[in-house]
Design a protein that fits this description.
The complex is a heterodimer. Chain A is an alpha/beta fold. Chain A is 46% helix and 15% strand. Chain A has 2 domains: 174 residues, D-Maltodextrin-Binding Protein, domain 2 (3-Layer(aba) Sandwich); 203 residues, 3-Layer(aba) Sandwich (D-Maltodextrin-Binding Protein, domain 2). The longest helix of chain A has 24 residues. In chain B, strand 1 and strand 2 form a beta hairpin.
Chain lengths: 435, 277
């Protein structure tokens, strides 16, 4: 009896452990006959022309806006999105990478351009989208300038999920109370910061976590955009005198009281709404956060393109970020996903998406209802603007991590920037030596 | 016994062996791991940030033994014989019911720049209102140890009370007859008889402090500039932020070895002293 009982327990434990192991591995058996008739995009092995596509993103907070676009796509092309949102970018990144090893490949997913996308392309994980790009550029749905951020070895991968231009939002009531107006030049901006600092109001918001790079990119792209771009490609050093000068300027601005305390844990939109800071240096995606607080564009807040630090530059540097929407190369419903991406870049989809988000669109044919954002979108397309890729995407991951740590320390305790710049450069040297 | 061994092997040993293997490879989560020998360990020990991480982890170990264990013992000794003592201990136990993440969120609100603590100090005209609790090292590590102590002291008190209540009455009564009370009673009777329980509480605290992650991650993410990083944060950073799974594996192997070595060394010492008694 005892032996039989032991054997039974052993067998049960073995089965349980085996099941756990299989579940953990979750690998594709390769024969494709899993028999899941409800698998998205397929029905008993045959392609369908409507249904649901699995969609993953690290922008969990954007679920209501994705739902609106999903409703529109279901109506217009017959496909809606099965939304899974992550709030933690690191956990999301690990999840997506691991999911490529399983049967549950992410049909559609958001990612980052630059080094992060190159990594997936190198491993053949994402489907090429060159045909979609060629058609969209020809029809004017995607500006040709964006193509460079999605091109690897002459082929395009993914399409833009969105674009955002980095501008200064300002509290109009704070400006009015102090007789200030939106600046035309860098000197104007420094005069505003001086005026507010004298009243004990920090002109600008800054933080020591994640977005610690923002003022570095603003100051360097506005002083020497060529040097800024050369840092991203490893052709310039972080110890270059131009970079050191920018760090020193940044330190002087911090010492002058232009910035909020980097240790504040309050949401930046709340600080702007309360008038605790006068300006926020953020991407246009931030408009939605301000509107959600009940702030009205043009009445409570407005925005302006940040003037160049160096007034002798021909064009005004405007930071742009573009996040990709990708299709997995080996997903069962890859063809349907690519059809969805074709729809996504069109004017109808982008009108729905950009207005749901309260943001600009990469598609010049989309109708943006917010007049200020629409004007900014047009301005960004003129010859007076030089679009410069956001530091977060322009910098390889290991260098970026070291830089975020360094800038976080610098905004907390500004001083001699050289040790920080040397640490970042050491990381850059190690990275570029392997490329 | 066999089913238990099998489950432990599959769920604990296999992941550990896989992590150990990864620590000898270069692996970014895609493709196949590439064998690089001891390079990850070499890179780790030549990184100055590891020294900061080790120092902070050592501070956490020392702080966790001194503060929550000390406070727990104090609460237990002062209340175990008291009428309605359980009601005095209850408020200290409540924080134990919430997660480390929630503790981090609550204490971030209190300790952030111009947060609740600074405002309270300012309102009462006390010094320290200008302190940058979470920005300056090693102050940020000290205040986070305080936040963790707020959570852990209650359960330590509970364990010590159980220990105190299990002490036989006879030696205590005999000591009372001999005139012992207060500090003398504690030092000569209660403390020696609490020794087995103290060994457990301190042992658990050492292990918990060596793997400190949640409170630090929520409150400072190891910053600013990696100044409050612990070994567990370093492991997370390398693995999930940098996507250097091999490097993260090397840190986790070192962390495991340190935890095991500290636990075994402590328990051996305690057990050998008990035998000597």
């Amino acid at each position: 009896m005892t032996d039989r009982s032991t054997m039974t327990r052993f067998a049960l434990a073995g089965l349980t452990a085996g099941a756990l192991l299989l579940a953990a591995c979750g690998g594709d058996d390769g024969n494709g006959d899993d028999g899941d008739a409800n698998a998205p995009g397929t029905s008993n092995g045959e392609a369908r022309d409507s249904g649901t596509l699995k969609f993953y993103t690290d922008k969990a907070a954007w679920e209501p806006q994705f739902d609106r676009v999903s409703d529109a796509s279901e109506e217009q092309v017959g496909w809606d999105l099965d939304f899974t949102g992550y709030s933690d970018a690191d956990a999301y990144s690990a999840f997506i990478k691991q999911s490529f090893r399983t049967r549950e490949k992410p049909t559609l997913f958001t990612w980052h351009t630059g080094d992060a996308l190159a990594e997936l392309v190198d491993e053949g994980m994402v489907a090429p989208t060159s045909d979609i790009w060629a058609e969209a550029i020809a029809s004017g749905d995607i500006p040709a300038d964006l193509e460079q951020y999605y091109t690897y070895d002459g082929e395009q991968y993914c399409v833009p999920l969105n674009v955002a231009y980095w501008v200064l939002y300002y509290n109009k009531h704070v400006f009015a109370d102090h007789g200030l107006e939106a600046p035309q030049t860098w000197d104007d901006l420094m005069h505003i910061a001086d005026t507010l600092a004298a009243e004990g109001i920090p002109a600008f918001y800054q933080t020591n976590i994640l977005f610690s790079f923002v003022w570095f990119q603003t100051l360097l792209a506005g002083s020497d955009p060529d040097l800024y771009e050369a840092l991203g490609t490893g052709e310039a050093s972080y110890t270059d005198p131009g970079v050191v000068a920018v760090m020193e300027q940044w330190g002087d601005m911090i010492e002058a009281g232009y910035f909020s305390d980097p240790g504040l844990a309050d949401d930046p939109q709340v600080l702007l709404n309360n008038g605790d800071v006068a300006m926020l240096n953020f991407g246009t995606f931030f408009t939605g956060s301000l509107n959600e607080l009940g702030m009205v564009s043009g009445e409570d807040y407005d925005l302006f393109v940040i003037p160049n630090v160096d007034p002798s530059l021909d064009r005004t540097s405007l930071i742009v970020e573009s996040g990709p929407l990708c299709a997995a190369q080996e997903a069962d419903d890859r063809d349907q996903a690519l059809d969805y991406l074709t729809w996504w870049v069109g004017a109808e989809a982008q009108t729905e998406w950009a207005n749901a988000r309260g943001d600009v669109s990469f598609n010049p044919n989309a109708e943006i209802r917010d007049e200020r954002l629409a004007a900014l979108g047009e301005e960004a397309g003129t010859d007076e603007i030089r679009l410069v890729e956001r530091y977060f995407e322009a910098t390889p991951q290991p260098v970026l991590t070291a830089a975020l740590d360094g800038f976080g320390a610098f905004v907390t305790s500004p001083g001699d920037p050289m040790p920080i710049l040397e640490t970042i450069q050491a990381e850059a040297d190690a990275y570029w030596a392997t490329q | 016994m066999a089913p238990g061994v099998l489950i432990v092997a599959v769920l604990l040993y296999l992941p550990f062996l896989w992590t150990t293997y990864l620590s000898f490879t270069r692996y970014r989560g895609l493709g196949s791991p590439e064998w690089i020998g001891l390079d990850n360990y070499q890179a780790m020990f030549s990184d100055p940030a590891l020294l900061t991480s080790l120092r902070n982890t050592a501070l956490w170990v020392a702080g966790t033994i001194i503060v929550p264990v000390g406070i727990g013992l104090l609460i237990a000794v002062l209340t175990y014989n008291m009428r309605f003592g359980a009601w005095f201990r209850l408020p200290f136990l409540i924080p134990y019911a919430i997660s480390g993440v929630a503790v981090g969120v609550i204490w971030s609100f209190i300790l952030q720049s111009n947060g609740a603590l600074s405002q309270a100090l300012d309102a009462f005209g006390l010094p320290g209102a200008e302190s940058r609790w979470l920005l300056d090292a090693p102050l940020n590590t000290f205040v986070m140890i305080g936040a963790a102590a707020w959570q852990a002291s209650g359960v330590n008190a509970l364990l010590f009370v159980i220990g105190l209540q299990s002490i036989p009455k006879e030696p205590v009564e005999a000591a009372k007859v001999d005139g012992a009370s207060g500090w003398r009673m504690f030092r000569s009777i209660l403390w020696p008889m609490l020794r087995p329980l103290t060994t457990v509480v301190v042992g658990l605290s050492i292990v918990a402090s060596l793997k400190t992650f949640d409170v630090v991650y929520v409150m400072t993410q190891g910053g600013p500039g990696r100044s409050s990083e612990t070994l567990a944060i370093t492991m997370y950073r390398e693995t999930f932020v940098q996507s250097e799974y091999g490097q993260g594996g090397a840190v986790s192997v070192v962390l495991t070895v340190v935890t095991l070595a500290a636990s075994i060394a402590y328990l051996r010492r305690q057990l050998s002293e008990r035998r000597a008694l």
